Amino acid sequence: MMRKMLRVVLVIFIAGTLWSCYPEGPDYYDDYDIVYTNYDNNYVFTGKPKYAITDKIIKITGNMDAGKPPEYVPSTYSTQMLNTMKANMASLGYSLVDVSANPDFVLMPSALESTNVEYYYDYWGYYWGWYYPYPMTYTYKSGSLMMDLIDYKDISADGKRRVVWTGIVNGLLEGSSSEFTARMNKSIEQAFSQSEYLRQ
Domains along the chain? Predict the structure, then answer.
């Protein structure tokens, strides 16, 4: 639970830092796309070539705490993103197996989405010879894709498995589905390409 909270705080920090770079808003959707990766630098990845991956991308929401069914990223977006993850794992020397085959790793993607509302004042409206500040608002959705690579065979005494690599892709959830998917796939590829230590 603490690790999940730390990841959420990290995502918020990354998004806030990024927003400060664009105080008047982004010029393009991909102005929001950033990639962060981290790993256990004491961990040996080589010699463990089998992995499994979930077939859906779960959304991190409050619904699970309320006992409601989990939400998932629509297949319109998730299918291609999952295929991109699989292609990158294959290029690093990993073989995809079913989780029932006792893999070395499990790759678990999840998504966090938020709606942001921004306010600013512009001098619109001419009245009695004066221009007066007119409040303007706009909204945009931001989201982060989190990829956790878990050592499936390393189980602690309390039944928890060890997360050995994390990739976070932060981006703006706007634009057409094809545009969004292309941007996310590019960022996913970047997460793996900057993680050469994963190579078998």
Answer: 2-198 (3.30.160.670)
pTM for the complete prediction?
Answer: 0.71
- List the beta bridge partners of residue 32: none
Do strands 130-155 and 58-59 pair parallel, antiparallel, or not at all (unpaired)? unpaired
Query: One digit per residue, pLDDT tens: the chain, 200 residues?
Result: 444 444 544 444 444 444 444 444 444 444 556 889 999 999 999 999 999 999 999 887 655 555 677 888 888 888 999 999 999 999 999 999 999 999 999 999 988 876 655 555 545 444 445 555 555 554 545 678 889 999 999 888 888 888 999 998 887 555 556 777 788 889 999 999 999 999 99
Contact indicator for 158, 148 with CB cutoff of 8 Å: no
